[in-house]
Amino acid sequence: MRPFDDLIAEALAADVDGWGFAWLEGRATEERPPWGYARLLAARVAAARAPLDLDTGGGEVLDEAPVIPSGALATEGWPANLGLARARLEPRGVRVLRHATGTRLPVADASRDLVTARHPVAPDFGEIARVLAPGGTYLAQHVGPWSAAELSERFLGPLPGNPVARDPGAEVLAAQAAGLEVVDLRAARLRQEYRDVGAIVWILRKCPWWVPGFDADVRRGRHDATLRALDAELRASVPFVAHASRHLMRLRKPA
C-alpha cells in the first residue's frame, strides 16, 4: 500500500462530480440491493409515455436504460452535475431541467405517467403527486436511515436522535398524505468495505453530509489522528466496515 500522504493527496485531487463511483474500484465495495433498481427503471421507462427522473445526478442511472421515450424529462439541482447530465442525456432526447430541492418542480400538473428517482435528496411527495397523471407511478430507490452511520460516527462520535426524515415508515405516511397509494415497499441493509484511507477520504468528499466540513477540516488537520488510525488498521488488512440502508418504493396516483 502506498504512503499515507500519497493516498490522501490523491483522494483530495480526484473528481467527485456526478454519481459514478468507478474511482473506488478495487478500493471499496458495497453490496447491491436485491431488487435491481437499474433493471426495474429501464423496464418502466421503456413502457412510459412521459417519464420524469428526479435528482438525476450526472444522468448515469437513467442513461443505462436502453430505451428512453421522446419527451422524457430529468431534474438536477447541483450545477456541476447539471452540466454532466445535460451532456449525457440531451443527446438521447431527455430535457434536463434545473431544480432546487424544496422548490416547486418546473413540470406541469398531471403531465407525467412515470416519476423515478435514485437516492433523491428530499422527496417531496406533494410535488410528485401533483405532476403525476392519474394512474401514474412513482418508482424510486431511497437512502434509508443510518446509512453509513459507522463511518460518520468514527469521525463525529455517536449520532444523536432518530433520523425520521429518511425512515421508510415516515415516508409512507407522507406519500399517503399526498394522496398516493403504496404498491410496493422493500428495505435492505448492505455491507460496505473500505480498504484504504484514500477511499474513505474520497467517499466523504463525494457525500459531504456524512461528515460535515470534512474536506476543509482534513486540510487543516482536524481529522488527521482519525485518518491515521484508520490507515493503520487498513494496512493490517482489516477493512473498515459500514452499512448502507436502502429502500425501494413504488407508489401509484389513483386513477
TrEMBL record:
Gene3D superfamilies assigned: Vaccinia Virus protein VP39
InterPro entries: 23S_rRNA_MeTrnsfrase_RlmA (IPR052939), Methyltransf_11 (IPR013216), SAM-dependent_MTases_sf (IPR029063)
Domain Methyltransferase type: 52-139
Gene Ontology molecular function: S-adenosylmethionine-dependent methyltransferase activity
Superkingdom per UniProt: Bacteria
Protein name: Methyltransferase type 11 domain-containing protein
